[in-house]
Design brief:
- With 271 residues, the protein is of the alpha/beta class.
- The protein has one domain: 3-Layer(aba) Sandwich (Rossmann fold), CATH 3.40.50.1100.
- It is built from 9 helices and 6 strands.
- The strands form 2 sheets. The chain has a 4-stranded parallel beta sheet with strand order 5-2-1-6, sandwiched between helices. Strands 3-4 form a two-stranded antiparallel ribbon.
- The chain is globular and about 55 Å long.
- Bound molecules: pyridoxal-5'-phosphate (PLP).
């Protein structure tokens, strides 16, 4: 809730009650467990919903279908603007909804390479990341109502995850995406927190665009690969969200005092 504060603020203003989770590592995994716990005791008057392409059927297929509008639009727009297909499409992968959304527009275009970028956190050689398809800390398992690659130990206990981006800080991945990865249709890469801050800074200063920390993972990989591509090849980077919601996390990461000053100034103005 702290890391997604602006989103939580708007949810509350729209009338939602947002309940903080105090269990475990207090990330998305724990929030999903808690939501399941509450749901099984109050099925008469509540319904479980999930915004990403994970969890029990029909969520993966249903959310993938909703999000496919992104791929349909991107396919149309790249044809109109570039006159052909892109060479590569990049998307960050938390649960996988934005990646599935854009990839679906290009799955049948066999020449278009699809690249999913996971949270490399403090590095794949540490235990502080959330990379399921890259690295060797994940294995197939069943949890939270579905079967996929989960970050887990030898006893099948879920591992803690870390990412600077709250939305990528999750142990599982869409079963559809892990299948596409296994079949070789989607290539997976990982971007570290430091690389993300660097790519975010470059994007802001050169393009005037402020991508979300999650989306910045996709920018990292595109920036790594673009120099070795031909100038005629087009690439698409899916910007899954704006960085406005991340203002305090980013200020904190850059050691900028503004996040503290902002909070103190707001508190003072209410005295
Ligand atoms: C801006 C943004 N991008 C990406 C994600 C990751 O989710 P998914 O992989 O389902 O697109 C999130 C999740 O909260 C998000 O807020």
């Amino acid at each position: 809730m702290a890391r997604q504060r602006p989103n939580v603020f708007w949810m509350e203003k729209l009338g939602a009650t947002v309940v903080p989770v105090t269990d475990g590592s207090r990330t998305l995994k724990d929030a999903i467990n808690e939501a399941f716990r509450d749901w099984v005791t109050s099925m008469d008057n509540t319904h479980y919903v999930l915004g990403t392409v994970c969890g029990p059927h029909p969520f993966p297929e249903m959310v993938a279908w909703f999000q496919s509008i992104i791929g349909t639009e991107a396919h149309k727009q790249i044809l109109a603007q570039h006159g052909g297909m892109p060479a590569r499409v990049y998307a960050c992968v938390g649960g996988g909804s934005n990646a599935m959304g854009i990839f679906q527009g290009f799955l049948d275009e066999s020449d278009v390479e699809l690249i999913g970028v996971e949270a490399g956190g403090k590095g794949l050689d540490t235990d502080q990341h959330a990379s399921r398809m890259v690295g060797d800390r994940a294995a197939a398992g069943v949890a939270q109502g579905y079967k996929t690659m989960f970050l887990q130990d030898d006893d099948g206990q879920m591992l803690d995850t870390h990412s600077i981006a709250a939305g990528l800080d999750y142990v599982g991945i869409s079963p559809i995406l892990s299948d596409l990865g296994e079949k070789g249709r989607v290539r997976f890469e990982a971007a570290t927190d430091d690389e993300v801050l660097e790519a975010l800074t470059l994007t802001m200063r050169t393009e005037g665009i402020i991508p979300a920390l999650e989306s910045s993972h996709a920018f990292v990989q595109a920036f790594k690969e673009a120099p070795s591509m031909s100038r005629d090849e087009a690439i698409i980077i899916n910007m899954s969200g704006r960085g406005d919601k991340d203002i305090f996390t980013i200020a904190h990461a850059f050691d900028d005092p503004s996040w503290k000053e902002f909070i103190i100034a707001r508190a003072d103005s209410y005295r």
